[in-house]
Amino acid sequence: MFHSVTELIEKIILGEDTTMEFKREMPHRDNLADEIAAFANAQGGTILIGVDDNKEIIGIELEKLDSVEKTVVEICNDWVEPDVHIFTEKLRIDGKNLLRIEIPSSCSVHKTHNGYYTRQVKTKKEMSTEQLAKLFQTRSQPRIIYFDTLPVPNTFRRTLREPLYRRFIREDVPEEDIEDLLFKRSLLVEEGREIRASVAGVLMCHDTPDDFLYNSFIQAVYYSSKVKDANYQIDAKDFRGTLDQQIIDAYKFVHKHNEVSARKDVGRIDQPQYSMRAVFEAIVNAVVHRDYSKGESKIRLFMFADRLELYSPGALANTLTVDDLPFRQATRNELLARLLSEITLDDDVEKKVKRRHFLERRGEGVGIILNESEQLSGKTPLYELHNEELCLTIFAAESLQKTV
Description:
single chain; alpha+beta; six-stranded mixed sheet; globular; 31% helix; four-stranded mixed sheet
């Protein structure tokens, strides 16, 4: 982190911050374990032992330096789970001995005997359930908490609409057992003494999820131009129903504006701008994998004269990269994926998208998007990450009439 002692001294002069912590002397094992885990769970940082909070270099007695370093390594191995890999360096500044501990940002989520901590401003802070769920979603170890199973504030048992939750319960289940099944399916969850609807419960079993989960809808706009320009806006809709209804509504919006060109050689040849099978897969993926903890943004679908753009809030889950998408799966919302895999499509949509359920969970979605779209347009769809938002661009096929 620091390329020279001079650079480190300048950092000490500036004082503690999100990436720097001072310790006058070797702290209690519990305390140091919490600090190390907090840095590893955040963006990483440095702990300097031998510097007090007033930026004064106190130093460590030379005969204790090895012992302090050994204790720090033991703490990382035995007091933090999973263990944290650190870098230590003994330094001598102004005739005084320091121990520098470098903690990298980890690919795992670390806990101590006291719980899960992260680094905020100048101190460690215990993570909320929502923060922890989000961190597990973005790191590589098996997740323990899924955001879509968390309780939604200001919801109750009656928030779930009976015709909607009945879709996930067998018809022969006695009335008195239904509530227990709603809990087992995590559509209802307990929060203290209160019964709440879960995130997935609201998204799949309430008429307008946006009432409780801000921006949990799809916004679709069609422009006749190649740029966003209100003068060329032909159609715009916000789809706010259950997630499965949002998928169908967005699919039909694209289908409505999916221009078809024709050419007569021997018989008639029709060519749409977009493969509706690829479009369906893209919308389902955007809905299932979006980060619903990000209430500041919504799923946005833009159609232009030459392309379709689909934005889904949230960085890729776990260690996935854009290049991995055709080859690997990582489900951000396991419960939502399971629920959508149980709902059947109507016959008309089923025939067009060649599947029976909203989600088949075979890992074929991205391949269908890439292959079918490229066959039509000759251009490979493009996945990009923009400020923790995944954007998919599908290029429109040119009119057949232009090729004659």
